[in-house]
Structure formats: C-alpha cells, structure tokens
Design brief:
Bound molecules: N-(5'-phosphopyridoxyl)-D-alanine
Distance between the termini: 27 Å
CATH topology of the largest domain: D-amino Acid Aminotransferase, Chain A, domain 2
Order of helices and strands: EEHEEHHEEEHEEEEHEHEEEH
CATH superfamily of the largest domain: D-amino Acid Aminotransferase, subunit A, domain 2
Strand content: 25-35%
Radius of gyration: 19 Å
CATH class of the largest domain: Alpha Beta
CATH architecture of the largest domain: Alpha-Beta Barrel
Largest sheet: 9 strands, mixed
Length: 282
C-alpha cells in the first residue's frame, strides 16, 4: 500500500524513520483513526480537532491545516483503491540525537499516515451485525486517558487479556467499580430504554463516534440519553451493552464474562440507534 511520511507518498516498504524517533523510544506522540466508506470520510473535522487538542496538550507544534490533513486522507484513500478504509494519522515529537526525557527544542515532528481496509459499516439489522463477547477487568492505564497518545501499552495489555480469554474486547472499570471504557472503544449500557454512558473526563477518550452518536440520539429524541457514572453492578444487570469506535460504529455486546447480556441477543435499542447513526453520521 501507499503511505504518507513527512510530506511524501511512497510504498509502505520504503517508509523509514530513525530508531531515535521519540515515538519509538517514548511513545511520545498523538494519533487518530478516521473511517471512510465508499471514499467518504466520517467525522473528519472533529477527528482533526481532537488531534490538534492532543498535540497542544503535549506541546507538539505542527503547522498542518485541516485542508492539508484532508488532502492527505483523500490522497491515501484514492491511491489505495477507494472503498472502505480507515486512515491512521500519527504525529510524534520527532527524532533527536540523544535519549533525554525533556522535550527537545529544535526538532521537527514526524508525520506518518497510512490507510487500511475496514469492514463495511454495520447495517441496522440484528441478524447481520457482529456480536461482541467481552471480558472485564480493572482499568490499570494512566490518568490521562483523554489524550489519544501513541503510548498504548496499557490498552494493548488489557486488550490481550480479553483476547486470550476468547473475547473481542474488554470492559474496564475504575477503583470505584465504575465502568470507564473498552481497551479501544467507548462503552454504554441500555436500561429500560435509556442509553447510559460515562461522562467525559480524564478516565476515557472523548470518542468521535460517541460524540456523533449522542448528538444524533439527542436530536432525534426517541431514545433517552444519560451521561453519568455507571457501576459494574448496573453493567451486569443491563438490558444491552454497546461499544463504539471509528472502526466498528455501534457494536452490540451479547456476553460479559461468560454471562449473557440481557436475554443474550442483540437488542431493539441497538437496532434503532444504529439505524439513526447510519442515517445521521457526518
Ligand atoms: N480506538 N477509547 C479508546 C481507548 C480508543 O482507543 C478508541 C478508538 C475509542 C473510540 O474513539 P473513536 O470513536 O474516536 O474511534 C475510545 C481506535 C479506533 C484505535 O485505537 O484503533
């Protein structure tokens, strides 16, 4: 495939960066994943806004405009054959000649982007959607989970734990036994027709799928939405559990720690929400 590295397009096999890059040595960088279906990017502006925020949180100065990013994303989609592609954007602080923790003054950020094929967006049909089975465990990541850092070891270790247990994801909870999010997605429960998800704070990533979904549900008004702390007790007694991310949209969870969620089938509220999301995503 064709990738983008520091202003140039090239085959992936030719993209090279220094092992002294701070992204490699420290995980010192910010990333984004933006979905596109039939060549059309979803949530593009909020994705770029989140990346700009992440860069400013960690004091990386990069002079890429939103138009530059759009051009990179559209060029990658086109050069890699269109269809359904996720675009991965990665900005590290750059390459230094020494390994010293403090931010160096005069290095240029490394900018890397590639695209990868993603599954078609789910159809709002209970019969065809992928059903997720998840584990749960205490969230052992850091206290800045709102930053989309490339340092993902905590997420990777949690995901692996769920994966080794034969599950597709893992739901995390804090020391107060409140759900935070999944290892690579946001998490929700449905109880008596109301969708409930934890509020935005340092414990979770402000997902763009979450942003669009809550916006669409509130504008439609047929499903009630609450942003508040959700205890694991509530999660275990939920009628439905959902996960959202750019690469899966709304994913219904039918099993948690080996126990069926609700009646163990994909729920009605999921179907309605995915229908609204499919029609309303931007
Ligand atoms: N993951 N929470 C975490 C920890 C995530 O890694 C992600 C996304 C989300 C959902 O955010 P969004 O709706 O903006 O994709 C929540 C991406 C897809 C990844 O790391 O591959």
């Amino acid at each position: 495939s064709i990738v983008y590295l520091n202003g140039e397009y090239m085959p992936m096999s030719e993209a090279k960066i220094s092992p002294m890059d701070r992204g490699f040595l420290f995980g010192d960088g910010i990333y984004e994943v933006i979905p596109s279906y039939d060549g059309k990017l979803v949530g593009f502006a909020p994705h770029i806004e989140r990346m700009d925020q992440g860069l400013s949180f960690i004091d990386i100065e990069l002079d890429y405009s939103i138009d530059t990013w759009r051009d990179i994303c559209e060029t990658l989609i086109e050069k890699n054959g269109g269809g359904n592609q996720g675009i991965y954007l990665h900005v590290s602080r750059g390459t230094d000649s020494k390994r010293f923790h403090a931010y160096p003054d005069n290095i240029a950020p490394t900018v890397y982007a590639f695209s990868f094929e993603i599954a078609p967006a789910p159809k709002p049909e209970k019969g065809t959607v992928k059903q997720y089975k998840v584990s749960s465990t205490q969230d052992l990541r850091w206290k800045r989970c709102n930053i989309k850092s490339t340092a993902l070891l905590g997420n990777v270790m949690h995901f692996q734990q769920g994966y080794e247990a034969g599950n597709n994801e893992i739901i995390l909870y804090n020391a107060n036994d409140e759900m935070t999010e999944g290892s690579a997605c946001n998490a929700y429960i449905v109880k008596d027709g109301t969708v409930i998800t934890p509020p935005l704070d340092h414990q979770i990533l402000p997902g763009i799928t979450r942003l669009m979904l809550l916006d669409i549900l509130r504008k439609d008004g047929s499903i009630k939405v609450e942003e508040r702390a959700v205890t694991m007790d509530e999660v275990r007694n939920a009628d439905e559990i959902w996960l959202t991310s750019s690469s899966k949209e709304i994913a219904p969870v039918v099993e948690l720690d080996g126990t069926p969620v609700g009646d163990g089938k994909v729920g009605d509220v999921w179907e309605q929400a995915q229908r609204l999301y499919s029609a309303g995503k931007y």
